[in-house]
Design goal:
Blueprint (H helix, E strand, L loop, with lengths): L1 E5 L6 H10 L3 E5 L2 H5 L3 E4 L5 H10 L2 H11 L3 E4 L1 H5 L3 E2 L13 E5 L10 E6 L17 E6 L1 E5 L5 E6 L3 E8 L2 E4 L7 H12 L2
Parallel strand pairs: 1-2, 1-3, 3-4, 4-12, 5-6
Antiparallel strand pairs: 6-9, 7-8, 10-11, 11-12
């Protein structure tokens, strides 16, 4: 099974590649259109700033490719910043358009609740609705986060997991063939591996 990991100079590409190899997949780190569109599954990783990331995706011609992946029904997973990029815009980079595959905004975590921002560490998931990524993953499972911003989906029925961190933040969304999570499954031990396995069988 070929899994294309989109290469736009994101920071967590190697750890995602390692996790896919561990699950028996064939990861290909690439920004080549044909490689991406011929993959069984596609992962959009991400660590960094929204505006910089969109600039890279646009300059490498990857924005159109990601839209084509979505249109063709190829399973697509956005991780961390990769989730945020699937939405329309972010408070982190005003005026920069996201990929717009999901309706909604990326908001800054509140700094007035006595909690550290960025949120770095383990947090437990709550499930407002059943999600395919969370098959055999009990509610309350802990996963690893590193983020200062979070998505707020306009369509609430696409939200499959949330966390409480000074506010209710959408931790995972899915719609059709598009999946996304704010946390890092590749750094979330056995729970994270189960989530990635669920994606690879989607």
């Amino acid at each position: 099974m070929k899994i294309a990991i989109i290469d736009y100079d994101a920071g967590n590409i190697k750890s995602v590649e390692k996790a896919i190899l561990k699950l028996g997949g064939n990861p290909v780190i690439t920004r080549d259109k044909e490689e991406i569109l011929s993959a069984d599954h596609v992962i959009l990783p991400g660590v960094g700033a929204f505006g910089d990331a969109m600039e890279k995706l646009n300059s490498y011609g990857l924005t159109e490719v990601i839209h084509e992946v979505a249109e063709r029904g190829i399973p697509l997973l956005g991780i961390c910043l990769g989730e945020q990029l699937l939405f329309e815009e972010s408070e982190e980079s005003p005026g920069v358009k996201g990929l717009g595959l999901f309706k909604g905004k990326v908001l800054k975590l509140p700094e007035d609740k006595g909690l550290k921002v960025p949120n770095i560490g383990w947090n437990s998931l709550e499930y407002p609705a059943e999600g395919r990524l969370f098959k055999d993953v009990p509610e309350g499972s802990f996963v690893y986060f590193v983020h200062s911003f979070y998505v707020h989906a306009e369509e609430r029925d696409i939200v499959k997991a949330t966390i409480d961190y000074g506010t209710t933040a959408d931790a995972s969304v899915e719609k059709g063939n598009i999946f996304a999570c704010q946390f890092h499954p590749e750094k979330s031990s056995d729970i994270g591996m189960q989530i990635l396995k669920n994606f690879l069988t989607a």
